C-alpha cells in the first residue's frame, strides 16, 4: 500500500505524522516491510532517520529520498519490495505532489481547525479532483485532524467538514498538539520511544487509532 501524507500548506505536521505512522506500522506489523520516502525538499524525514541511525535506536525505520524524476518507475519497484510505502510530500502545490497523487493508493491530508488550513484543504481537494478524473480513479483521500490545541476545539470539527465532497474520508479521532512531538524529532525518536524515562501513552493511542482507521477504511 502506497500512502502520501500531503498538503499544499507547510507546517501542518506532514513530516511528523509520516515518521510516526512509519513507526506505528513497524510496531503493529513487525513482519511487514515498511518504507518511508522523503519527497520534501526540507528533507525532515531523512535528517530524522540519520539521527535515529547514529543513536542506534530501534526499531530501524528505513527512509529514502523520492525525487520527481523517475517517480513512477521508482514507486513501482519499491512496491515489489515493501508492504507499506509512506511518502512525505512538500507543503506546496508542486509537480512532485501532483505526480505522487497519480501513483499512490491513498493520500492523508493533515489539518488543524485553523481557517487558513481549511482553505488549503480545499486546495488539496481541487488537486485530488483532477487526479481522480484524469489519472487515478482509485485514489482514496483521507483527512486527519492534527495539532488540536484544546479538547473544546472538537466542537468545531463538524462545522469544519461542511462543503467538502462526499468521497473524502474523515478519519475518526484526532491528534493533540504536544511539545513532545517537536522534542523527539531532534533526537531521532518518536513518541513511541522512551523519552525522559517515559512513553507518552496518550499520544501513542492517538497515532495508533488513526493508523487503525486507515487500515480499516483502506482494507489493508
List keywords for this structure.
220 residues, alpha/beta, Rossmann fold, seven-stranded parallel beta sheet, 7 strands, 20% strand, globular
CATH homologous superfamily designation: P-loop containing nucleotide triphosphate hydrolases
Mean pLDDT: 94
The CATH architecture category equals 3-Layer(aba) Sandwich
The shape, in one word, is globular
Number of helices in the DSSP assignment: 8
Low-confidence stretches: none
Tally the beta strands: 7
Strand content: 15-25%
N→C terminal distance:
8 Å
Reading off the top of the CATH hierarchy, the class is best stated as Alpha Beta
Helical content (DSSP H or I, runs of 4+): 40-55%
Query: What summary fits the major beta sheet?
Result: 7 strands, parallel
Q: Give the total of domains.
A: 1
Gyration radius, in Å:
16 Å
CATH topology: Rossmann fold
Strand order of the largest sheet: 3-2-4-1-5-6-7
User: Given the helix and strand composition, which structural class is it?
Assistant: alpha/beta
Helix-strand pattern, N to C? EHEHEHEHEHEHEHH
Question: Can you characterise this structure?
Answer:
By secondary structure, the protein is an alpha/beta fold. It has a single domain (2-218), classed as Rossmann fold. The chain has eight helices and seven strands. It has helices at 14-28, 44-54, 71-81, 95-103, 115-134, 157-161, 179-185, 201-218; strands at 2-5, 34-39, 62-65, 84-89, 106-111, 140-148, 169-176. Strands 3-2-4-1-5-6-7 form a seven-stranded parallel sheet, with helices on both faces. Helix 6 (157-161) links the parallel strand 6 (140-148) and strand 7. The protein is globular, with a radius of gyration of 16 Å. The N and C termini lie close together (8 Å). The mean pLDDT is 94. It comes from Entomospira nematocerorum. This is ParA family protein. InterPro entries: CobQ/CobB/MinD/ParA_Nub-bd_dom, DNA_Partitioning_ATPase, P-loop_NTPase. Residues 3-190 form the CobQ/CobB/MinD/ParA nucleotide binding domain.
Amino acid at each position: 500500500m502506497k500512502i502520501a501524507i500531503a498538503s499544499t500548506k507547510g507546517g501542518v505536521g506532514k513530516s511528523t505524522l509520516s515518521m510516526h505512522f512509519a513507526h506505528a506500522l513497524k510496531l503493529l506489523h513487525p513482519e511487514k516491510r515498511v518504507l518511508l520516502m522523503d519527497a520534501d525538499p526540507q528533507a525532515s524525514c531523512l535528517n530524522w532517520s540519520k539521527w535515529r541511525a547514529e543513536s542506534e535506536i530501534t526499531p530501524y525505520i528505513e527512509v529514502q529520498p523520492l525525487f520527481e524524476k523517475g517517480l513512477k518507475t521508482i514507486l513501482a519497484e519499491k512496491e515489489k519490495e515493501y508492504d507499506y510505502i509512506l511518502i512525505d510530500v512538500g507543503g506546496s502545490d508542486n509537480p512532485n505532489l501532483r505526480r505522487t497523487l497519480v501513483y499512490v493508493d491513498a493520500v492523508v491530508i493533515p489539518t488543524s481547525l485553523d481557517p487558513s488550513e481549511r482553505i488549503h484543504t480545499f486546495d488539496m481537494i481541487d488537486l485530488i479532483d483532477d487526479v481522480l478524473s484524469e489519472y487515478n480513479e482509485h485514489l482514496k483521500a483521507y483527512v486527519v485532524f492534527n495539532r488540536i490545541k484544546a479538547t473544546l476545539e472538537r466542537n468545531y470539527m463538524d462545522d469544519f467538514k461542511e462543503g467538502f465532497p462526499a468521497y473524502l474520508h474523515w478519519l475518526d479521532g484526532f491528534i493533540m498538539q504536544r511539545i513532545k512531538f517537536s522534542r523527539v524529532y531532534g533526537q531521532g525518536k518518536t513518541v513511541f520511544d522512551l523519552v525522559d524515562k517515559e512513553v507518552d501513552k496518550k499520544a501513542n493511542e492517538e497515532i495508533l487509532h488513526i493508523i487503525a482507521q486507515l487500515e480499516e477504511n483502506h482494507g489493508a
